Amino acid sequence: MFWSLIPLVLIAVVLAGAASQCTVATNGPTQGQIPFFDADAALRSDAETLSFPIRNPELPEDWQSNSGSRDTITAADGGPVSTVGYITPQATYMRYTQSSASEEALSRHVLGSRYPTGTVDVGGQRWVVYTEPTEETAWIADLGEVRILITGAGDEAAFTTLAEAITTAQPLAG
């Protein structure tokens, strides 16, 4: 019985190959096309609509915006939320969220039950660091009327680049 199945399996493999239903990858996965997202237009719209200062960081040209969203934190001390995501030159995803919500409400909304594990200073701005071994790192800064949360798969240099760009950006006119 086993020997009678071998010709059938060979015929199925040949037919699948001929129909281009199977391929053999020799150099691993390749990156697909990064979706286009107009972060400038989205953040201008957020600045006109939302009641807190919106910042549009000037990032290096090789950072590509690929996503964005709005949300509302309905918990105590919550508020509207604006988020933009980027793909870094190292092909990692980073995003930053701006909100008038308190740091605690923002962290619970985005990070769940994680707690602060330290701080880092970037350009004179204190960022509270949230780390957990199985989760992405997150940084939160209080810029007065707005809290900024950065998270993603990038390394410390990516976090620092994004943090510097955000803290040096002037709020957009609303």
Can you tell me about this structure?
- With 174 residues, the protein is α+β, with helices and mostly antiparallel strands.
- The chain has a single domain (39-168), classed as 2-Layer Sandwich (Phosphorylase Kinase, domain 1), CATH 3.30.200.
- It contains four helices and seven strands.
- The chain has a seven-stranded antiparallel β-sheet, sandwiched between helices.
- The longest helix has 17 residues, at 2-18.
CATH superfamily: MucB/RseB, C-terminal domain
Question: How would a crystallographer describe the biggest sheet?
Answer: 7 strands, antiparallel
What's the CATH architecture name? 2-Layer Sandwich
Proportion of residues in extended strands = 25-35%
Number of domains: 1
CATH-defined fold name:
Phosphorylase Kinase, domain 1
Q: What general form does the structure show?
A: elongated
Radius of gyration over all CA atoms, rounded: 22 Å
Side by side, the strands of the main sheet go: 1-2-3-7-6-5-4
How many helical elements? 4
Helix-strand category: alpha+beta
Instruction: State the total count of DSSP E strands.
Output: 7
The percent of residues in helical segments reads 25-40%
Q: Note poorly predicted spans.
A: none
Protein name: DUF4245 domain-containing protein
Organism: Nocardia mangyaensis
InterPro entries: DUF4245
Keywords: Signal
